[in-house]
Amino acid sequence: MPTPQSRRERPAKPALTREGIIDAAVLLMEQDGLQRVTMRRLAQALDTGPASLYVYVANTAELHAAILDRLLGRVDLNPDSGGDWRERLDTVLASYEQVLFAHPALARAALTARAAGDNYLALLESLLSLLAEGGVPDRQAAWGVDLMLQLSTASAAEHSAQREDSNAERDWIQLRHALVNASPETLPHVRAQADNLVAGAPAERRRWSVDTLLSGILATEPPAQ
User: pTM for the complete prediction?
Assistant: First the structure.
């Protein structure tokens, strides 16, 4: 029979901290996916009880929001200063999308998760600074940032879901077929625009979407408070 080891002889576990918990959660997500990052699973990874984690993180939703904020630290917030402010803003949003695209489940969670940590605030600061450089009025910039991040988040979630879907290529072919073969009598505009509806590379569509939003943000004042 093996000799029981006294608790006093075992190496002491490192003290729990919020930063350490989030570090472990990010590692667990990158290994097993966001769906496995639950309070119970994370407690097992940290060799502690779930109740101990609730001292630092209120629930799984807050944990996922903290993971999102941690990964936002990978967004390139300082694109080449030699470019036009619109180009640099597009570069920041493209980097944000790429971070989410690399983690499909997180991209979908980001549609509802509300990050509020230092990295999210730094992202807001970068976007607001670029909008200010472009002469966008303050309230239009503040409302516009929310709109642009919604667009980028939805785009990342959509494309990451397509990447995971083994039927994505088949579905795309079926869509093109349906558009091209739409009835000219009942769906004349769909039939006429069949090619345009699916034209453009993802980067081209993103840049056009950003430019379109910026034009609207610049031209449209929010309702008076």
Answer: 0.83
